Each structure stands twice: as C-alpha cells, then as structure tokens.
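Run log, item B.
One chain of 166 residues. Sequence copied directly from the ordering sheet:
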Amino acid sequence: MKERASQTLEWVTEQNWLLDIALDKLSLGRAWLKECQKLKIKNKKDNEKNKKALAEAKKRLEGAVAGLREAGTQDHLPRGLFARAELYREMGDIAKARGDAAEAREIAERGGMGLWMVDVLLEEGRIYSAMGENGKARECGEECKALIERTGYHRRDSEAEELNKR
C-alpha cells in the first residue's frame, strides 16, 4: 500500500492536485500507523522500528490534514482528523486526540453528516477507553449503535459492539 500511495503521490504532486495529494498522504499515514500497531502487538515494546513508523505516520497524517484544509473540502477533512486522532491516541497524546475528534464532531454536526457522526462517536469512545473512562466509552457505543440503526450504516456494527465490550 505504501508503494502505491507513494507512486500516486508523485504523480498528483506534479499536477498540483491538492485533494489527491492530501488523500495520498492520508493513505501513507494510515499505512505507517498500521505498521506501528503491528510492531507494537508483535514486539510488546517500544523499539526503533516502532519509533520510525510513528514518526512517518505523524509526518504524513499532519501533512494530510493540512492538505485537506488547503484543498478546502470539509467533507473529506473528518477522515484525516480521525486518522490523526488515532495516531495521537496511539502516542498517548489524549488532548490532541480529543481536539481532532471535537473538530470532526463540529464539522459533522454543522453539515448534518450522520455517517461521520457514527465515526465521531466511535473515536470519542476509543479516546474515553484509552483514558480509562469505560462508562463514557460505553455511552458512546450505545449512542453509536442507535445512530447506526437510524442511518443504516451497519458497516460500523462490529466497531460499536467492540466499544461496548470495553
């Protein structure tokens, strides 16, 4: 995935296609974040590979969010904010994770974006879980399940269920 996104990033950068550049950076950042999470699970310790993956993920995701802002597409910005919130949560920077989730919530509420609100509730629940506030995490999970029923966004059923188990 990283190779493909790197190649397309080269192509779209030559064309100065702002949205495509930002989305490719988002893909790269998410790929680096997933690598970091795999290393963490596999090795159960912080090592040099993990640090490199985190640094790459941070660089790419911060660039993606900045690029999405520059491209001026509010409908894509929450995707970048969610990925960056996940990164910050992984890094233990809960304040920044909460800030990104709050911004995504504001965009979703203002735009009447029900599917993004499902994702907001999932991320907020994960943040509460990382903070040890399991009751609030479950509340987010329950609200999320109700919103999934209203919107028909059943793609997120398993994530909402997982949140309720925490």
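Observations after the first pass:
- The chain has a mean pLDDT of 92.
- Helices lie at 2-15, 18-43, 48-71, 77-91, 94-111, 114-130, 134-151, 157-165.
Flagged for discussion on Thursday.
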